[in-house]
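Researcher: Structure prediction, please.
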Amino acid sequence: MNTYLSDYVDIQGGHPFRGSIPADPQGNAYALQIRDASPEGIADWAALTRTSLDAYKNIVWLRPGDIVFAARGQNNYALCLDEVPVPAVCSQYFFLLRVKSSALLPGFLAWQMNRQPAQRYFAKHAEGSDQIGIRRGVLEALPIAVPSIEQQQRIADLDKAAHEERKTLQALIHNRELQLDALAFALHNHSTR
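Model: Predicted structure follows.
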């Protein structure tokens, strides 16, 4: 039996900002944009643009467990929001996914959407000439696997551990580069005396 993303997830477009997001230091909301999210699964909450949203419009606030999917550009990736520390919406360049079935874990789904089978599917179905992207219908028709909750949790935990390892390794590499730069400066200063 074929299983598709739309069988397990409600999908909606991001908040429909017109043009660039107007910054408002006293605003009632923050806007998550493509530049604030990374394919490595990190949302830079401190970098979000604070803005004002019309309280009379239907605002779909981000909440823990939501998945935002970057639908525009070359990199189409899913980011599972473990936390949402500020009142925030995602911009129109994302699709907002909310799992509607207890048979599917959001962290597992985001992992699956970021792996090669799904990424090949997105690359094959991307459309556009100036700005390529993924249409909602294409996203809804994404074939997905739904193993047991236990297996999903193990995979999601493994993915989270891999992200932490990558972050630690990048910090070690950065520290080594600083050490090498300090050594180079010391040698340069010593030789110019």
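Model: The CA atoms of residues 15 and 103 lie 28 Å apart.
Researcher: Thanks, that helps.
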